[in-house]
Amino acid sequence: MIVVHHLNNSRSQRVLWLLEELGVPYEIQRYQRDARTMLAPPELKKVHPLGKSPVITDDGRTIAESGLILEYLVERYGAGKLAPPAGSEERLRYRYWMHYAEGSAMPPLLLKLVFDRIESGPVPFFIRPIARGIARQVKQTFITPQLQLHLDYLEGELSRSEWFVGNEFTAADIQLSFPLEAAALRAGLDQSRPRLHAFLQKIHSRPAYRRALERGGRYDFGPKE
């Protein structure tokens, strides 16, 4: 039996969604973030040395990193679903998006989270103006332009097909859901980018997505992410 070591408000929600799409049975081992620090509990280090989520255990294997987990599950349990045929051009595009989601799309979103906290969080009064001024400058000159660049790129890519790989829904769309949902809540993704906005509406209406939320619990991408 697949066990999903599921941390609240984390990327592991995508793993639950994929398993619901595949119709594969699984169990959930739940972990809660520390209410003050929002870090994962130390118990997760008993599963994987980094103590982070997502991580799954299956058939004696411990597998971490969301992209690898999704690829592993599709290859082992998908029976040809949710991925293009091996060796096709679509498969190469599929693998690109699986890596892009965390390798390119997430870093500016995480930077925005960090610098938002610096700008608005508690800081000793004697360095507050300096810290907040630096945070604003970094956001204006680097983070915001990077976020706009990626959102414009993704909006343009969806002009090519209904989903990111083609006209069929794949696990790459699941992988891309996390940065796009985060962008909708804290990085300016709205109806001004109609294709991305429609993408989010479509994934939210999928029955498997809704079942995953029911099993894993609703999450947000605000300061707690």
UniProtKB/TrEMBL annotation:
Pfam family, one: GST_C
InterPro entries: Glutathione-S-Trfase_C-like, Glutathione-S-Trfase_C_sf, Glutathione_S-Trfase, Glutathione_S-Trfase_N, GST_C, Thioredoxin-like_sf
CDD domains, per the entry: GST_C_GTT1_like, GST_N_GTT1_like
Record-annotated GST C-terminal domain positions: 87-225
Record-annotated GST N-terminal domain positions: 1-81
Top-level taxon of origin: Bacteria
Record-linked PANTHER family: GLUTATHIONE S-TRANSFERASE 1 (PTHR44051:SF9), GLUTATHIONE S-TRANSFERASE-RELATED (PTHR44051)
Family membership: Belongs to the GST superfamily.
Annotated protein name in UniProt: Glutathione S-transferase
Organism: Steroidobacter flavus
